[in-house]
Amino acid sequence: QVQLVESGGGLVQPGGSLRLSCAASGSIFILYAMGWYRQAPGEQRELVALIRRGTTNYADSVKGRFTISGDNAKNTVYLQMDSLKAEDTAVYYCNMDILSLDNRRDYWGQGTQVTVSS
Under DSSP, is residue 38 helix (H, G, I), strand (E, B) or coil? Predict the structure, then answer.
């Protein structure tokens, strides 16, 4: 069984920074891709950033402000968020595409709240 555990959310003022982490544990054979999604109240979950085989992709709304990185040896993905804005407020979820003992599928973290407010 694979589990993803997130950390690093919280309250920050506009213009501030936060760093999210997400570590996977369990029977992981291959980690194909890692990403971060977010969901604001009343909104659909949206992709924020993705890293796959060293290639990164970002939502237009976060380009130049957020940086995704991964450590495959530690099965961990990070999201460095700088120049935060009020509209970045949401619950952030990590996602990993993993081949485990039983099958290949997407796994999700439990979500961590990020609130940007003065």
Answer: strand
Q: Which long-range contacts (CB under 8 A, 24 or more apart) does 56-60 make?
A: none
Collapsed DSSP state (helix, strand, coil) of residue 59: coil
Give, in order, the Cα–Cα distances in Å from 7 to each of 25, 29, 63, 105. Answer: 14, 23, 22, 22
- Condensed to tens digits (0 to 9), the pLDDT of residues 61-77 reads 999 999 999 998 999 99
pLDDT the model gives residue 1: 86
How much is the pLDDT for 7?
A: 95
> Who's near 54: CB < 8 A, 6+ residues apart?
none
Residue 3: φ, ψ to 5° = -130, 145
